[in-house]
């Protein structure tokens, strides 16, 4: 999460006793950051930011195989699938007219958006990427956003996730308040999508 690094550095400088944000499964972790459409019921979750996604491919890949104009055409493409977001290799789209589910055949499956970004930049296929990673490469002409008339679904948010009992900890409250304040007035992860980056 590149944009989070300076934010976390700032709060660590303000309160150096706060430790790493990692996995709640470990007993010494107070808060975890999760990008999801549905936080798990056993945790409390505070929505920090919207995380926009887009379907992207490199210009070289599209020049070789063509640019899909409809989600159904993705069945003829090499698709790079995030296994954490699509357990069944199905991509979901919405438009004003319809909802569409497309069963794709993954050329690559990975649980890392960074790994899929790198594969996309290398011309390996079409990927479903978060805009906070894709936007700089779209602006630089290294990636093209495709199927922009269709909205990816479901919608994902960035959540601060914690056990309910931990919220009474002043450092937990301070971290959550800081993250919320940092995203007020403009979400750096959605700027590319909001400005209509193609």
From TrEMBL:
- Please give one Pfam family short name: LysR_substrate
InterPro entries this protein is in? Answer: LysR-type_TF_proteobact-type, LysR_subst-bd
Query: Which segments constitute the LysR substrate-binding domain?
Result: 19-183
GO BP term, example: DNA-templated transcription
Question: Which molecular-function annotations from GO does this UniProt entry contain?
Answer: DNA-binding transcription factor activity; sequence-specific DNA binding
Q: Which family does it belong to?
A: Belongs to the LysR transcriptional regulatory family.
UniProt-recorded name of the protein = LysR substrate-binding domain-containing protein
Q: Which organism is it from?
A: Paraburkholderia elongata
């Amino acid at each position: 999460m590149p944009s989070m690094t300076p934010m976390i550095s700032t709060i660590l400088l303000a309160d150096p006793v706060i430790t790493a944000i990692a996995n709640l499964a470990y007993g010494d972790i107070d808060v975890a950051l999760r990008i999801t459409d549905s936080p798990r019921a056993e945790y409390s979750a505070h929505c920090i930011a919207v995380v926009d996604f887009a379907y992207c491919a490199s210009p070289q890949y599209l020049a070789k195989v063509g640019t899909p104009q409809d989600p159904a055409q993705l069945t003829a493409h090499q698709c790079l699938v995030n296994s954490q977001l699509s357990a069944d290799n199905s991509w979901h789209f919405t438009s004003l007219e319809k909802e569409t589910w497309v069963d794709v055949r993954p050329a690559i499956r990975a649980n890392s958006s960074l790994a899929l970004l790198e594969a996309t930049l290398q011309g390996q296929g079409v990927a479903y990427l978060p805009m906070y990673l894709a936007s700089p490469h779209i602006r630089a002409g290294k990636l093209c956003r495709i199927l922009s008339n269709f909205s990816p679904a479901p919608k994902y948010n960035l959540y601060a996730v914690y056990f309910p009992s931990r919220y009474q900890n002043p450092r937990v409250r301070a971290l959550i308040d800081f993250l919320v304040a940092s995203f007020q007035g403009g979400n750096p992860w959605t700027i590319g999508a909001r400005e209509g980056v193609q």
